[in-house]
Structures are given as C-alpha cells and as structure tokens.
Write a structure and sequence with these properties.
EC number (chain B): 7.3.2.6, 7.5.2.13
Strand content of chain B: 35-45%
CATH superfamily of the largest domain in chain A: MetI-like
CATH class of the largest domain in chain B: Alpha Beta
Strand content of chain A: under 5%
Helix content of chain B: 10-25%
CATH class of the largest domain in chain A: Mainly Alpha
Shape of chain B: elongated
Strand order of the largest sheet of chain A: 1-2
Domain ABC transporter (chain B): 4-236
CATH architecture of the largest domain in chain B: 3-Layer(aba) Sandwich
Radius of gyration of chain A: 26 Å
Helix content of chain A: over 70%
Distance between the termini of chain A: 31 Å
Strand order of the largest sheet of chain B: 6-7-8-3-9-10
GO molecular function (chain B): ABC-type polyamine transporter activity; ABC-type tungstate transporter activity; ATP binding; ATP hydrolysis activity
Oligomer: heterodimer
Order of helices and strands of chain B: EEEHEEEHHHEHEHEEHHEEEEEEEEEEE
Structural class of chain A: mainly alpha
Function (chain B): Part of the ABC transporter complex XacGHIJK involved in the uptake of xylose and arabinose. Responsible for energy coupling to the transport system.
Radius of gyration of chain B: 25 Å
Membrane topology (chain B): Peripheral membrane protein
Number of helices of chain B: 8
C-alpha cells in the first residue's frame, strides 16, 4: 500500500505505472470475485427468483410470479411445525453442546501436558472431519435394537429385552450433539486459551476461590467464545440434513430434509426454493440478532477469533436511534426463548444443582473442596472424551466382524469386508470419484481463497469489509441450500449431474477455509522481510516467490488440505448435484444404509476415516499445530 | 503488621527440575526485601511459593507466624502486583480495585467505595474509577495494579518484576513512588527483579539468588561492598576480578599471586595460603596515581596495588566517566571516576592505584 501511494505521488512519468498498479489490484480481485459473485451469489439469487415461479406438477416449472409457494410454506401447520422443530433441535443441540463442551474446552486450554493436549485435540479434530454419514451410521450401530447400547443394557440387566433408541427425537439430539460438540469445544478452547493465566492468579491472590474466579473472570472473558460457539453450532445444526435423515423418525423431518424431498422426490423446485429462502431467513435473522446484541462478527463465526471490539463506539452512536425498538425486541426475544425452550429451564436447574453442590462443599476445607471439584471435573472430561471418541472406535471394531450382519461385539476377527471393499468396482469407483473431486475442489478453493486473502491483505479497497465477508459467507449458508442453488443453476447451464458441477460447488463452498488460514498467515508475516528483499533488489514477483510464499506455505497447504478433506466427506451438495449419476463414498454409504447394513459399510468407513486422519495429521505436522 | 519466613523451601517440578533448593529467610514486618538474580535463578518461583501459586516440595512458608505452606492462594492475604499487571480487562478500574474486598465479603458497599477512593488517592490517580484498563497508560496501569493489591489490606505485598515493562524514565519514577507508598503504609514487601540497580536502590535488604539458592542476603551497601562470592560481585554492579592463589596471610591482609601479578587485599576469615581466590576491585575504588611513574611492572608495596597502563576507551555515564586501562600484560581494568575529575583520554599512559583496604577476597 505504501509503495503505491509513494510512486503515484512522484509526478507525471510515474502516473502511467501507478494507474496500471491501481488497476492491477482490481484485476487480482476479479478472479475470486468472479467465482464468488458469478457462481455463488448468482445461484443464490436464482433461488430467490425461482421461489416465485410456478410449479407444474410432474417435475416441470415455468417462469412467472406467484406467492403460492410462500403461502403454502407459511400457512401450512405441517411446515411451520417442522420449521419450529428445526429451530428447536438446533437450539437444544447448541445448549447441550455448550454444557458438554465448556468443561472439556476449559480442561484443554488450562492443562499443562502438551502431548496429551495434542492427542486430545487431534482426536476431536479428526472426528470433526469424518463425514456426517459415517458418524450418523456409528450412532445407528450404537442405538439400534441389537446395537451396542441395547446389548450392554440387556447384558447388565437394565433392559429386559433388546430395544432400539432410534429413530426418534432424543436419538437425533444425541447424534447432533456428537457431531457438533467438537465445533463448540474448538471455539471455546481458542477463546479460553487467550485468557491470560495471570488474570486467574490475580483473582485468587485477591482472595477469590475457584468458583468466584470462574464466575467473575473466566466466564465473562470467554463470553465471546460462548456466543460464537453457540451461534456456530446453532447454524450448523439448523442446516443439518444427514443426521435428521438417518437418526430421526418421520416426525423429525427438519427443513433441510423437507427441502431435499421437494427437490429430489417431488421435483417441486419452486417450493423447494421457497423453503430454502425460509431457512436462509432464519439464519440471517439469527445472525442479525447475534451481531446486533453481542459483539460476535461473521468473521469470528468463520473461525477467526478476530472479535471486532473497536466497533463499540460506532454501535453506541447508532444505539441512539433504535434502542427503543432494539430493547423491546430483545425483551420479547428473551421472554420467548425463556418460555419456549425447555433447555433454558434445564440450564437453570443445573445451575441450582451446582449451587447446592457448592454450598455443600464450602462446609469442608478448601483443600478437600478443590480435590472434589478436580475429581468431578476430570470424570466429566473423561466422559465427554469417551462420547466423542467411542463411536468411531465402535465402527472400527465392527468392520472386522466375520459375520454377515453388523453385530456388536463382533463375534471374531476377519478382513473379509475389507477384501470386499477393495474388490468391488462400485466402491473403488466411488473412492476414485471422491478423491478426484476433492483434489480438484481443493485446488479451486485454494486459488479463490488465497487470491482473495492476498488481495485484501495487500491493497486498500473501497468495501474491503464486504469482500472479506464474501470470503467467509459460503460456509454460513446451510449446505443443503448451496446444493439446491447450484442444482438450479447447473440445470439451467446444462451440466448438472457431472463431477465438474460438484467440484465447482465444493470449490466455492469450502473457499472460506483457505481464505481464513491464508489471511491469518499473511497477517503474521513480518513485512520487513519483504522490505529487506526489495531493498536487496528483488522485484515484487521475485519477493513473493522467494519470501512471501515460503513463509506462507504451511498456511496455503493446510488450507488446501482442509478443503480437500471437507470435500471428500461432503454428502448433501454432492448428492443433490449428482442427479444419481455420480457416486462418491459418502453417497454410496448413505444409499447402502437405506437398504441394508452390510459390514462393507463399516470397512469403507474405516478406510475413509484412516484417509481423513492421515490428512489431518499431515496438516498438523505441516503447520506445527495450527490449533494452538 | 506481619512478617514472612521461609524455612528450607524447595521446589522441584514434575519434570525433575529443581527450581529452588532450600532457601531460608526471615523477613521482618514492614521490611522491603528484594530477590535479585539472573533469569532462571528461582526468584520468581520463590515469590510464587509465598503467594501460593507454587506448592513447595519441601520446607515451610509462614506469613504473620501462621504456617501457610499448603494453603491455596486465596486464603493467604498477600497482595501481588504482576509483571504485566493482570488488570481484569472486562472490569472498570473501580471494579478491579474493589474485587479483593468483594471476594473477602466483609466490607459494606460504603466501605468499599471509601477504600477505592482512598487507594486511588494513594497512587495519585483520583478520577479514573470508571475507566477500563485499556484506557490507561502503562504507568497508570502499574499504579492501579498496586492499588488493587493493597485495597484488601493484605499482610504482605508481593511484586513480580512490576517495573520490567515500563520505559526507563517511568521505571525510575515508579521506583521512588513504590518505595514511598511502601514506607507510607509500612507493609512487608517482597520484590523480585533481575535488575541489579533496582535491587540496590529500593530495598532494605536484598537476597542475591543463583541456581535456586541465596548467595548472599544483606543490606544493599553490605552486599555491594562486601560480596560473599564471585557471583555476587560480578552480578551486582561492575567488578574487576583477578583470579589467583593466596601466598601469604598476615595481619588481616592477604597476598595473592595472580599469574604474574601480585596483589595485596583485605582478607577474610578462613582464607589460608594456597587457597584459590578472586580479588575483587570495584571500578570506583581505583585512583590515578601521578606520583608513581617508575615505569616498572605493577607491585604490591605498602598495601597499595599499582598498575601501569594505557587508556584504550572512554565513555561518559552522566555523573561519572568510565575508562578502560590496558596493562602491558594484557589485562583490562575498568575504572570509574566522577565526571569532570580529570581530562585523561584514550592513548594516555597512566598509573592506576588501589589500596589493599579497598580490595576484597572471595572464593574463586
């Protein structure tokens, strides 16, 4: 930035070059913008347009303008009921994840054994990237009649006969919490870790015991983490398709499930589009409330912990005009949440139990008290860790069963299902498809995210904040909506049902990961290295090649690997865009789960989990622990 | 008021590192004691065992006669000022200062109000109660940290390098300020620093730490002028150190053969001929001797040590001037003279002398 202004100030001979440079910054930006606007915003815009078109039963639709789709959505008690159920499930998932995740995150952030922390984090993070399909399947294995839970129940005499715990509401909640609690833990972890340990010592030194220190110092200072984590889990849960589909009964058809049905079964595109817009509106309203009433930003939801605190002043100015409305709305919102969500009552009850426990232990001396707190805390942490790690362990165990059906515990040891996996052309074809799509999508994501990050770091743009938001926006849109939007778009363009369509969709959907990582890397590079290189006579291109890129390499490669692994494990977008023509491993497993449960699924899952863990470890090695 | 005593305090970390190796000290009520030493010497660990952040693996900690060795930090009544101040960023200055009194739960709101006011006046920052820590400068944050530590009337004040993050000018100002406040309220204080100048100027007594042990404990003048060990002499201030072997001891003075150089020095009990020792000469003890210009090698006569040499380097230190003098046998002497005392400059040949009375012997 500095070089630019100085050259343009130099006078007439320089203006030509400076003009070129000024344009160059727009040329550079045009590449990511072309993708993010033309092939991300345009399909979303088309979705809006489509939602007003007229459906012709039998899979046709025609251009027009009707409010019929919205009327149907907003007047049907079925759809409204399912909309509320979707929101309620997401809320319950977020609150339970918070209760489970906070102690775990606190433990991880405050423990002082680096190797154990790395191990725990790697376990949590690895499970995070394994496709929802496999993880939902793991809970089917656990919750099914004759599954792990039922077998253990019968063996210990708690249950008189085998019983199935799914499909149903609570089975679904357990599965959702299992899938989303790692996001909560990681968000809270990075927030709690930034709390200076000296502050906690200062509190204790001033006479505050562990409970008071937690309440007055740790909790308020991790408020942003709590807000971001809850928002993140809420949005992810809201858009979840695979879990309600695989773990919920027909009563738990959430909005994403209904949308998929409209598109894939009913071929009612306009109505599917209208419901998608409804889901987006819920997300936007929620985000607006979050940003308006807390200081969480979209950037912080996107994973970077840059909480905009300097915006406070502007906000307080703006408050003058709208505080009346805002306060009224906030009051109504809170009372609505308080009345409606039973989960809040649960939180209160837990708070009271904690208080009672606290007053009980204050009667004993501080040393015993700390010991009791410590032991309880550790047991809790171990339980959460088991909850996170066990399901995939069970999948691994059942993959070695010698029997024809899934049983637990497996009645022996056999590699036959692995042999089957590697000899079945349809599995191998799906695997090759998955790998090919993921590699191409990773490349696309990295170029989009990387160029955008570089442009925003190096040049001043009018509206840089908008471009930055555009960079993280894709992951805030529920994937089912991305899938529907791209499907509509590609159908018009004429190449839906191809690998290319999935590659483009994944490439854009996961661009935020390289974008965030590379932005972070660029901000950490000491600019004087580049200045030194230029001072020694290196041209800007040479400087980028010899200084900037080598310093940034870990971030670029981790960004690419993240996009790779996410694309590899993605189900719903790929499924919608496949039009039954393309098979990937998640699609193949999902389809098989509909009909039967051959143990090949378990073997396929283990191969896939292994692949994921290898890539995750590579990322961790490469970047020296980017999660630290 | 109350004192602090450490008895054989030892701290071994789980990895096996012995950070503190059995230190003993009795700090009197109202006394200002500084723990000084290089980084990693165990001074901070020692302070943290007093505060209760580290539990000693052996030994006992007493505050005001009460054994607190196993007590958690919040039951010890110490007020600590941390290196980076550790002001709670989400609370106002008022809330920060009131925090300890609220935790104690034995103050009414009016008492807390009055005490916060009183503390802000003590640190000369009235009127900042409603600000947040990030609205204050480093020096102001430092004062608030002190006010917060003192507000609940602790039995002892613990200072963990609180001046390290301030710039030089502010640091000197705060040294005076800190000492003024400490004397005003007469609180027992333990101060940790690696800055030897701070240690010498602020304390009633200082404890020089090295490798987990106290090398020497005493008033600043005593530790500076009569160092017990080569380490102490070297660590505090500048010292000319001559390693050698004692050849004779008579009448309280020792003759030391330092590789071709014979020095006379005031001896100390226990020094016998044959012992390996170091002779310590503080730079300001040297004087230029214009009379003795016989051109010979340095001699030890009449209890005066004389060196011939050439000035190689000169720098002004403000109130004093430092000169380096190189002797013909290649030794470099550091000499400090009051500024304006003489006009000698690099290249001049000089004779430097120091009385045996001014030299000290320590074990090598």
């Amino acid at each position: 930035m500095a070089t630019e202004t100085s050259t343009s100030d130099d006078g007439a001979p320089e203006t030509g070059r400076a003009g070129l440079k000024a344009n160059a910054k727009w040329y550079i930006l045009s590449y990511p913008l072309a993708w993010l606007v033309a092939i991300f915003l345009v399909p979303l815009g088309m979705l809006v347009v489509f939602s007003f078109w007229v459906n012709i039963p039998g899979g046709q639709y025609e251009m027009g303008f009707t409010l019929e789709n919205y009327t149907r959505f907003l007047t049907s008690s079925l759809y409204l009921g399912q909309l509320w159920l979707t929101i309620e499930l997401a809320l319950v998932t977020a609150v339970v994840s918070l209760l489970l995740g906070y102690p775990m995150a606190y433990y991880l952030a405050r423990m002082n054994r680096p190797w154990l922390r790395s191990l725990l984090l790697l376990t949590i993070i690895s499970s995070l990237w394994v496709t929802y399909v496999i993880r939902a399947y793991a809970w089917q294995v656990i919750l099914a009649s004759g599954g792990v839970l039922s077998s253990v129940g019968v063996a210990t005499g708690i249950l008189s006969e085998p019983q199935s715990f799914y499909p149903g509401y609570w089975g679904l909640v357990v599965g959702m919490v299992y899938v989303f609690v790692p996001f909560m833990i990681l968000t809270l972890y990075s927030s709690i870790r930034t709390i200076d340990g000296e502050l906690l010592e200062a509190s204790k030194n001033l006479g505050a015991g562990p409970a008071r220190t937690f309440r007055r110092v740790t909790l308020p200072l991790s408020k942003n983490g709590i807000m971001s984590g809850t928002a993140l889990v809420f949005i992810l849960a809201l858009g979840s398709y695979v879990l309600p589909r695989l773990l919920g009964s027909s009563a738990e058809r959430t909005l994403p499930v209904l949308i998929e049905q409209q598109i894939m079964s009913e071929s009612n595109y306009p109505f599917g589009a209208a419901m998608s817009i409804g889901l987006i509106v819920v997300v936007l309203v929620f985000l607006w409330v979050m940003i308006r009433f807390t200081n969480v930003t979209t950037a912080s939801l996107g994973g970077s912990e840059a909480i905009a605190t300097d915006d406070d002043d502007d906000d307080s100015v703006a408050d003058g005009g709208s505080s009346g409305i805002g306060a009224g709305l906030a009051g109504r919102l809170w009372s609505a949440i308080g009345n409606a969500a039973s989960s809040i009552g649960l939180t209160r009850a837990l708070g009271r139990i904690a208080q009672a426990g606290n007053s009980l232990v204050t009667t004993v001396d501080s040393k015993t008290r700390e010991a009791v707190i410590w032991v309880t805390f550790r047991l809790y942490v171990v339980a959460v860790m088991v909850f996170i790690a066990a399901p995939l362990g069970i999948i691994i165990a059942v993959s070695f069963t010698p029997e024809q059906f899934l049983t637990f515990p497996p009645g022996g040891f056999s590699m036959q299902w692995y042999a089957e996996f590697f000899t079945d052309p349809s599995w191998i074809g799906a695997l090759l498809n998955s790998l090919g799509i993921a590699a191409a999508a990773a490349l696309l994501s990295t170029t989009i995210g990387g160029v955008l990050a570089f442009a925003l770091d190096r040049f001043d743009y009018r509206g840089a904040a908008i471009f930055g938001t555009l960079g993280v926006l894709p992951i805030l849109v529920p994937p089912v909506i991305i899938g529907v939007a791209f499907l509509v778009f590609f159908l018009e363009m004429g190449f839906a049902g191809s690998r290319t369509s999935i590659i483009v969709a994944h490439g854009i959907f996961y661009a935020p990961f390289p974008f965030i990582l590379i932005t972070q890397g660029l901000s950490e590079i000491d600019r004087t290295y580049e200045e030194a290189a230029m001072n020694l006579g290196a041209s800007p291109i040479r400087t980028i090649r010899t200084i900037t890129y080598p310093l940034l390499r870990a971030n670029v490669i981790s960004g690419a690997l993240f996009a790779f692994i996410l694309s590899l494990n993605e189900y719903i977008i790929a499924w919608l865009l496949s039009l039954f023509l393309v098979d990937t491993i998640p699609i193949q497993i999902f389809n098989q789960l509909r009909y039967s449960y051959p143990p090949t699924i378990a073997a396929a899952s283990v191969v896939f989990i292994g692949l994921t863990v290898v890539v995750m470890t590579a990322i961790d090695r490469m970047s020296g622990g980017i999660w630290e | 008021m109350s004192g602090i005593s450490l008895e054989g305090v030892t701290k071994q970390y789980p990895g096996g590192v012995l950070a503190v190796k059995g230190v003993d000290i009795d700090i009197e009520s109202g006394e200002f004691v500084t723990l000084v030493g290089p980084s990693g010497c165990g001074k901070t660990t020692t302070l943290r065992t007093i505060a209760g952040f580290e539990m000693p693996t052996d030994g006992a900690v007493r505050i005001d006669e009460d054994e607190v060795t196993d007590a958690p930090p919040y039951e010890r009544d110490t007020g600590m000022v941390f290196q980076d101040f550790a002001l709670f960023p989400h609370m106002t200055i008022y809330e920060n200062i009131a925090y300890g009194m609220e935790a104690a739960g034995e103050y009414t709101d009016e008492e807390i109000d009055a005490r916060v006011e009183e503390m802000l006046e003590l640190v000369e920052l009235p009127g900042v109660a409603d600000r947040t820590p990030d609205q204050l400068s480093g020096g102001q944050q430092q004062r608030i940290a002190l006010a917060r530590a003192l507000a609940p009337r602790p039995k002892a004040l613990l200072l963990d390098e609180p001046l390290a993050s301030l710039d030089k000018k502010l640091r000197e100002q705060m040294q005076v300020e800190l000492r003024r406040i400490q004397q005003e309220i007469g609180i027992t204080t333990v101060f940790v620093t690696h800055n030897q100048e701070e240690a010498l100027t602020m304390s009633d007594r200082l404890a020089v730490m090295n490798d987990g042990k106290f090398e020497q404990v005493g008033p600043p003048e005593e530790v500076y002028n009569d160092p017990d060990s080569r380490f102490v002499a070297d660590f505090l201030g500048t010292a000319n150190i001559f390693d050698g072997t004692v050849t004779a001891v008579d009448d309280g003075y020792a003759t030391v053969d330092c590789e071709g150089l014979t020095l006379r020095s005031k001896s100390r009990p226990g020094v016998e001929p044959g012992a390996d020792v170091s002779v310590i000469v503080r730079p300001e003890r040297f004087r230029f001797d214009s009379a003795s210009a016989d051109g010979g090698t340095s001699t030890a006569t009449a209890d005066v040590n004389v060196f011939e040499g050439e000035i190689t380097f000169k720098r002004h230190l403000g109130s004093s001037v430092e000169l380096r003098v190189e002797t013909p046998d290649g030794r470099e002497l550091v000499v400090v003279r009051r500024s304006g005392m003489d006009k000698r400059s690099p290249g001049d040949r000089v004779t430097v002398a120091v009385d045996a009375e001014e030299c000290r012997i320590v074990e090598a």
